[in-house]
Design goal:
The protein is an alpha+beta fold and 110 residues long. The chain folds into 2 domains: 3-37; 43-109, OB fold (Dihydrolipoamide Acetyltransferase, E2P) (Beta Barrel). Helices cover 27% and strands 38% of the residues. It contains 2 helices and 6 strands, in the order ααββββββ. It has helices at 3-21, 27-37, and strands at residues 43-53, 58-62, 68-72, 78-80, 90-98, 101-109. Strands 3-2-1-5-6-4 form a 6-stranded mixed sheet. α1 (3-21) packs across α2 (27-37).
Amino acid sequence: MTARNVAMLSILFAIIGLVMSGSRLSSAQVSLLSFAQQSPSLQTAEGQVTQIDAQNNFLQIQTSAGQEMQFAFNDRTEVVTSAQLEVGTTVRISYIVLEGTMVAVRIEEA
């Protein structure tokens, strides 16, 4: 992942956090939102966690259709679960695709 993509991802996470919190956006934030809208779109996937690699910041799920999907995550990924995320938990992941890598923005228990 390039430095430009990391910067774009940081901006996107900040904007998504503001929008999800219901905060009013300033004109600067509206400008950033316009920039982010040109970035990859937010997608979702749901499935059962089959692998968690916390050391390398990757999570893998298997969808109900049997498709294996792997996601990168970081300290800005919002995780919403009733307990610690573990193999076997069914999750819904909101993500973007950057340079071919699915990057989790939010992971929640389904």
